[in-house]
Amino acid sequence: MGGMTHRESAHYWQSPKLPGVDLLRARYIRKTFARHTHETYVIAAITQGVEAFHHGGSVHRVGPGGLALINPDTMHTGHAGEPEGWTYEVLYPDASLVARIAAQTTTIRGTPGFRVAAADDPVSSRHVQAIHRALEEGNALAADTLMHAVVARLLRLHGGPLPERAIHTAGARNALRARAVLEERMADPPSLESLAAELGTSPFALLRAFRRMYGMPPHTWLTDARVHRARALLDAGLPLAETATAVGFTDQSHLTRHFGRIIGVPPGAYRRGRARTYKNRARPVP
């Protein structure tokens, strides 16, 4: 991709030629991703520099030829692993697509997923980049073929069944109920103390159970959930200001700030990228 630049750029997009997959190509230097999750899988091929990210209680560093592999609903972060930042090309395949490929190509039983968060796998990295190139060229057959090949390879080399989240303890059940309350009352959520009282537990016990279940405290989880719901509303065509209010952000700038720290691009750029096919160049990050 040429030499490293001194300017950040990012393009988040979706091609109608490869349904069920979002894509991101970005060059980040000072970018810091907040603790967040994705509803999809994440397959990120680092092409230049080093990305560092927190995942599963450890900090992982990935350079050229390496991949960051994140399962759905798994808390992680992201930031530069060296002063020059990092460049990467990312695939976000949805769960149904990965499940179909796993059923056709592996013996995995249950929900398929990645057993490692980082892998040194230049072959898979080249496949990820080739999918981007194929979609730029409008080659649906190549993109779909490569998508099946790279997911099957990654599951064979680095995959297995995902463990089921245990919800047998009272704390886990309270965390699950707390999540349901926050989802239902996202625009006007209760305080931690009120939420704990409503569930018949203490704030500290609820906080501890929620962290154990979801990898982050309730207020961080709520911000993440608001951004995910905002994405769905933007996909449905709701204006930015109305989207911000609907999910509980104070205004459009509040939505924009958190959206960029989780998705990687501002909400307006996200909506444009989802509404039309790729236009070849990454756009500067505002």
UniProtKB/TrEMBL annotation:
Recorded hits in Pfam families, A to Z, give: AraC_binding, HTH_18
List, alphabetically, the InterPro entries matched. AraC-bd, AraC_XylS_family_regulators, Homeodomain-like_sf, HTH-like, HTH_AraC, HTH_AraC-typ_CS
Where is the HTH araC/xylS-type domain positioned along the sequence? Answer: 176-273
Xref: PROSITE patterns: HTH_ARAC_FAMILY_1, HTH_ARAC_FAMILY_2
| Key words, A-Z | Activator, DNA-binding, Transcription, Transcription regulation
PANTHER family from the entry? HTH-TYPE TRANSCRIPTIONAL ACTIVATOR RHAS-RELATED, TRANSCRIPTIONAL REGULATORY PROTEIN
Write down what this protein is called: AraC family transcriptional regulator
Could you tell me which species this protein originates from? Streptomyces smyrnaeus
